[in-house]
Amino acid sequence: MSIIERIAKGKRKPLEGFRVGFCLHVTKETSVLVMAAKELGAEVALCSANPLSVQDDIAAFLHGEGVAVYAWRNETQAEYKKCIRDVIAFKPDIVTDDGGDLHYAAHGAKARGIMGGTEETTSGVRRLSALEKSKKLRYPVIAVNNARTKYLFDNRYGTGQSTLDGILRATGMFLAGSRVVVCGYGWVGKGVAAMAHGMGAAVTVTEVDPIKALEAKMDGFAVAPLEKAAEQGDVFITCTGQTGVIRKEHFAKMKDGAILANTGHFDVEIDASFLYRNGRSVEVKPNVECFKFGGKKLYLLSKGRVVNLVAAEGHPPEVMALSFANQLASILHVAKNHASMEKKVHPVPESIDDAVARLALVAMSVEIDKPTAKQKKYQRG
Amino acid sequence: MSIIERIAKGKRKPLEGFRVGFCLHVTKETSVLVMAAKELGAEVALCSANPLSVQDDIAAFLHGEGVAVYAWRNETQAEYKKCIRDVIAFKPDIVTDDGGDLHYAAHGAKARGIMGGTEETTSGVRRLSALEKSKKLRYPVIAVNNARTKYLFDNRYGTGQSTLDGILRATGMFLAGSRVVVCGYGWVGKGVAAMAHGMGAAVTVTEVDPIKALEAKMDGFAVAPLEKAAEQGDVFITCTGQTGVIRKEHFAKMKDGAILANTGHFDVEIDASFLYRNGRSVEVKPNVECFKFGGKKLYLLSKGRVVNLVAAEGHPPEVMALSFANQLASILHVAKNHASMEKKVHPVPESIDDAVARLALVAMSVEIDKPTAKQKKYQRG
Amino acid sequence: MSIIERIAKGKRKPLEGFRVGFCLHVTKETSVLVMAAKELGAEVALCSANPLSVQDDIAAFLHGEGVAVYAWRNETQAEYKKCIRDVIAFKPDIVTDDGGDLHYAAHGAKARGIMGGTEETTSGVRRLSALEKSKKLRYPVIAVNNARTKYLFDNRYGTGQSTLDGILRATGMFLAGSRVVVCGYGWVGKGVAAMAHGMGAAVTVTEVDPIKALEAKMDGFAVAPLEKAAEQGDVFITCTGQTGVIRKEHFAKMKDGAILANTGHFDVEIDASFLYRNGRSVEVKPNVECFKFGGKKLYLLSKGRVVNLVAAEGHPPEVMALSFANQLASILHVAKNHASMEKKVHPVPESIDDAVARLALVAMSVEIDKPTAKQKKYQRG
Amino acid sequence: MSIIERIAKGKRKPLEGFRVGFCLHVTKETSVLVMAAKELGAEVALCSANPLSVQDDIAAFLHGEGVAVYAWRNETQAEYKKCIRDVIAFKPDIVTDDGGDLHYAAHGAKARGIMGGTEETTSGVRRLSALEKSKKLRYPVIAVNNARTKYLFDNRYGTGQSTLDGILRATGMFLAGSRVVVCGYGWVGKGVAAMAHGMGAAVTVTEVDPIKALEAKMDGFAVAPLEKAAEQGDVFITCTGQTGVIRKEHFAKMKDGAILANTGHFDVEIDASFLYRNGRSVEVKPNVECFKFGGKKLYLLSKGRVVNLVAAEGHPPEVMALSFANQLASILHVAKNHASMEKKVHPVPESIDDAVARLALVAMSVEIDKPTAKQKKYQRG
Q1: What value of ipTM does the predicted structure carry?
Q2: Which of B82, C14, C263, C325 sits 20 to 30 Å CA-CA off C196?
């Protein structure tokens, strides 16, 4: 609440007259964002960014509060798409997405009447940037994912902790002494690698980007092509935002008992469909499937879907609060400034980022220095 | 199984004719030890080392397998003591304990007929050493807890991981950016501190032993008296094996929202009874009680009992397997050598420790070097 | 040499006909860059970016090789400025600077005939950005300092290592168990903090930027205003690029025996002039001056100048080689593309950055993955 | 001085009437110990524990102060032995050694009149324990090396820092991104491995002891036989106290440019004599010799002698002060209690260890808790 007040800066209903369409994981955490938009005056509709993560009680609660909810647990792929179209049909002024599917659907419908939007994920931003490049982006979008505070909290530390937490809950394995292979050394991979090492694991990083590979190497991790790392890993964690990262040629080289987890976006990073087609699968514990494959056992967690959301409880509340502050402030920014914003993917304005970081420091009782007048002058050159 | 075979070294029934009395946490893990003793020929009886951790299905299973089981969930204190007496009445030759209560009861009954025993915990060993000092120890005991492999696996890494896991499951808190106060820098404290730091927390250590305090300081942690640390901590974790470590004068200085967890032995490290007498308690989540106290909220996990057993699933199986190998080999050692062992607390024989470490390395596919003939000679001087 | 060949990409004299003016630390490492420019066809002049770091034998060597050298050890401030004017008078086409003084002088002289330039340091870039903002920048400049490979190697790991190395050589102090206060959590501060912690020190970070402060906090370091940190530190290391960071109010609160080191740019981060005016100074060892001040002793290293250059040997050769590759490739880029470049501060082109990272990975025998065709397509959206 | 006063506990000349024979590195640090013994009333003689580390000015100074000095720089092997015999001929009551050579010589001379001694190093203690085992030890010896404070400060952190410092000064290499192979995971190896990792290196540990190997593995390091690690290392650091650790079969597998450093005792850990016999050696920098061998270059630091003493400045003064307090207190303990001590190798009495740790904490301004009366009672059981 104090966040909402600080962000609204005294205006009672800054979103009055705006219709906001959301495509989000339907959980308690995101419901807070939807309700906040409503609180600030908006009319809101909601579909799910992931058919599997819908919490029906939350959906019911939001519906009761007057939100137009198009989401239920275990939607079929067809239902999932229909729900997205329903949100478009709601004629939103502002579109807030987590993955890019809603933005894509909006563009399929010519984005009529949409003033602007926000996007939560790296993979969604990538899809929007491709649109921008080909001059097809029809409204300005703030890439909330690019907020520096989001990098720090959500991607690095938040996903780092919740990924390991998810793996420990699902498997009860022992990290100390194990070899963890981290695929991708972006912000999420950095967090996962540092924390896995901090729990006593040896870490090998795989990358396609030479600069990120170099950084992993300088951080003291082993760096290798996945084909070599496949032979050594006890656990494999994908965090690339890419498709087909772990494939049959890698499965073939793995040790008996290897564990496979994904903490990137969607469920395409590990080629689970190959395993399902070629191995016999048994659920040995909730969220742990065992495949007999080539004379050995491989364990796939949460069917290759994001392990931190499925097997653990997602991000800690502190992280969600910051993400939430970023998103809400970005929606307000679009509402206020859309007319003057170019039709491209915008970073989160620095002033929002700074304000969110200060909120977090206050919450942690951390004080910092202020530049002196002399220093400000020095900085200006 | 392969462990049992290696330890039995070809003999089919090395425990034939022995009666073994166990006082252990009644869980799947320890049931393996009890069954192994039976498998090797012993007659066995079992009571619980902790009335709260009894898993009734395990107790039922063991009973069905012919074990004399005296344990059920939520025993009263009186029942707990009666169960221990029942195991003594079973007239064991060898006594295997986890805390020292069974050894104490055996001594109360003059330890008639008992050839020797083993003890699992630091606090139990401390009690037995006090007996030895006052010449009252009536049979030799192997301090399994003192095995070097146990220090490494079970106390440091095992409890380190399961303690953090327990806290994360209970609270969902965010470790990165928090201040964790670790009370006690023995093996458990070292593991908890290193891993908490590895997850992004800042760590303050409190100690009464100057050498351990120095070690914590040289490891890069802040070291302070608890009275000062109390003001700064977001989470407090006791791992001392001592009583009354966190007391009212410390509660009084804590920040609003501080979390209190114990991962030492028993439930005496945090003065929970003070909280219960003086604050209003509400269970906000399973294993999390909120106390309003002096205008602020304090959160006590699992009523001050060991958080890794109550809120998480205890040690990972790899750790249990090693502990188990140590215990079983120690029981066999007592069975074979009791006549020649002095009536004192013995360390785990080096040969057992080495053999267990080699078992673990094999399981991890780690090869190591062998000393050359020249080196062996050099070592002899 | 192999670097030069790879960068020149087969062209024998890509700098033929260009005059390049350099303002650099006159050391063996930078002489390699100057000679490489000459090798590739340029006419070159050189003055020093720091009057104190000139190695006279290197200056003599370069002069012998046909470089117009305007630099000698211990230049007065007036001589230092005159040398810079001499390089301007040489009428360079391209200007390569380390700090911004040469660029400033060039602008003072209306930048006549200058096609473009490069700048090595954060503080230099800041000064150029200020010019750009006020529309006064007269030629395009590549901010070599902004290369991602430079961040990684030079600023973070290179300066991290050489700073600690410089402090250890100067003082012989014991890092384990000490409290190190790191002022500034930019790339340099991150490297210094991580490595100081890795050597067993406890670290407190001070910052003025809320996002960087948050990052330091989430990395597990203590964060505090300098006024509070001043009371606790055994060593203070400034890495801000700012002026007047450690001032008399901080000196007043420090412990007896505190050590003061600067590893930012120039010598203005620690207010050494205050110490010289108000304390009695004695050189107790090379590069270590003791000030008696308010009843205690403070130790200032290398007179507040960059400790890694003065007290140690600067960056390791691997780091210099990469920096060098970045600089040389950037000079070639300016030579080739200046006509089409806007008059602003440009980041190092991504292609240069990638190529340099690949050079480094090859040198370390590290192989990495390549994106599959399917992944490239997925990335395009 | 304050240390001496605290240790002497008010007695002015507790060593009056005792003759003490020392065999130590003749450096400023150890001269303090020799002078302290004199100060406390002893007559003293001194030879060098290492012919190469003698600082002639220190030898001259001690001679001037009335110490019988038998040591000069670059003694031949014959001179070295003669000097040791001279100290025996001095008829010491107490013998303080650093390596065991003086103790051996004393036993060769039947140890006539010697009441007891102290020994500083692990390898010396090993030799004395072999004597004890074969019932040939003729006087009690305190193994100063076994002091817990010494483990912490001197072996782990002290040697850790000074070893890396020595390697950086000698080579200027870049630790971040390199692969450091640490041979031996005793206290020294643990310190070197942790700090090398803290500077950004990846670490592989080699061991012959399965428990230490397991500990290294659980600490997150790679563990491998040296034969495999030889192929990967950029730097090799021996810390085993053993002979012939790195041998020709390992040299044969190393990468071009590998660096070899020893920080154990003596100069036998790396088979340097093989290199000298089989490769061409050139000193490329002080303390760095390059061998061309099998088509590649290997770099041997400080001729295979302890790199932290030869290439850096040995331990930081804080570490030396603690070592010194341990040694002096141990000498006083022997002087006072020799009559009642068994003829075996004794650990440092716990009371000395505790007192030294408290000295160190005071020096660091660290306060710690005291056990409550209730806790003391609980601990007694």
Answers
A1: 0.82
A2: C325
